[in-house]
Amino acid sequence: MSTNSSTVGQLLWQGPVCLSWKQDLEGAVYHLANCFLLLGFMGGSGVYGCFYLFGFLGTGYMCCVLWGWFNACGLDIVLWSLLLAVACLLQLAHLVYRLRMDTLPEEFDLLYKTLWLPLQVPLHTYKEIVLCCQEQVLTLATEQTYAVEGETPINRLSLLLSGRVRVSQDGQFLHYIFPYQFLDSPEWESLRPSEEGLFQVTLTAETECSYISWPRKSLHHLLTKERYTSRLFAVLLGYDISEKLYTLNEKLFAKFGLRFDIRLPSLYHVLGPSASEGGPESEKDEEEGFAPARSPAPVVPTSVQQPPPCSPHPAVTNPPAPLSRARMSRPDSSVLGEDSTSLVLEDFEEVSGSESFMDYRSDGEYMR
């Protein structure tokens, strides 16, 4: 044991004894090989960093092969350098294969950069999602329907890539769907995996559209298997549905000039046909819906009744104008809040003319 330790100590501290040093330097190929090796070991990480690393290392080892064959004349130098050069070339071939496998079609690549990459979704996860839709891009011609209310079954989930889709119900326009929004996210969330249903709205393409579609069963199977993908879709679908609700909210605000609450039980009844299209029945419904805004309830109906015929006031030459349709088509009084009192007072002034039979006081009582 002591003999081995002494031999190792001599090799470490004394080193090999060179009988004579070469006076001539090695050839240019040797120095070129070391320059390539130095550049190669300065490479970074990632796919392109590996390309840089193995590219320069492979070139440097090939130069070592040439130097060992022509200058050093050493078989061991040639063999080792050749083995390392072949290993670098195999690594380059593997990187090229990976890049070709990771290449996506143009539409899916743009979709990844626009929607999924900002969420830092790994590429392999995105590829599983793309494989679920079979990497197919479907198209819709102008005025072609994607779904018809009451007829089309809910059996897929689709995402719009280009174009614009119009959403309507009973012929009434609701909102638009723009690129990188889901076409049927509310329908998807409204049903359980084991349930079946039909569309309650009609989706029509206003321009030439392209979209991708996931079959319902295949996507549910993927979401059940991959928890991360399930959470990802839950976030995207929730955001998409909220955007659609806020779009309806903005439409109501633009139509009535009042800010509506998106948590109303039914927005369609407010967006439905106007009273002029519904005839007497619709006017009756409006009057019933608008009656709760008049406070107190037992007193208001008597105040609106026409008084007995009497001689007109000398200052009044024209009869009072009837209520305008715009005023009668106001939304439900539960949405108006504190403004309902002032609106009712305006109606009273229009009905009674300049000679008001009843005065409304701030304490809620009526005085003749």
Give an overview of the whole structure:
By secondary structure, the chain is of the alpha+beta class. Helix content is 53%, strand content 11%. The chain contains 15 helices and nine strands. It has helices at 2-14, 28-40, 46-72, 75-102, 106-116, 123-132, 185-190, 216-225, 227-256, 268-271, 275-290, 300-304, 325-328, 333-336, 340-352, and strands spanning 138-140, 145-147, 156-162, 165-169, 172-177, 202-205, 209-215, 359-360, 366-367. The strands form three sheets. It has a four-stranded antiparallel β-sheet with strand order 2-6-4-5. A hairpin with a 2-residue loop joins strand 4 (165-169) and strand 5. Helix 2 (28-40) runs antiparallel to helix 3, helix 3 packs antiparallel against helix 4 and helix 8 packs across helix 9. It is elongated.
How many helices? The count is: 15
Low-confidence stretches: 262-268, 271-368
Number of strands: 9
State the strand order across the main sheet. 2-6-4-5
H-E order = HHHHHHEEEEEHEEHHHHHHHHEE
Largest sheet: 4 strands, antiparallel
Helix % is 40-55%
Q: What global shape is seen?
A: elongated
Average pLDDT for all residues: 74
**How much of the polypeptide forms β-strand, as a percent range?**
5-15%
Structural class: alpha+beta
Rg over alpha carbons: 40 Å
Head-to-tail CA distance between termini = 124 Å
Keywords: Membrane, Transmembrane, Transmembrane helix
Protein name: Popeye domain cAMP effector 2
Subcellular location: Membrane
Organism: Chinchilla lanigera
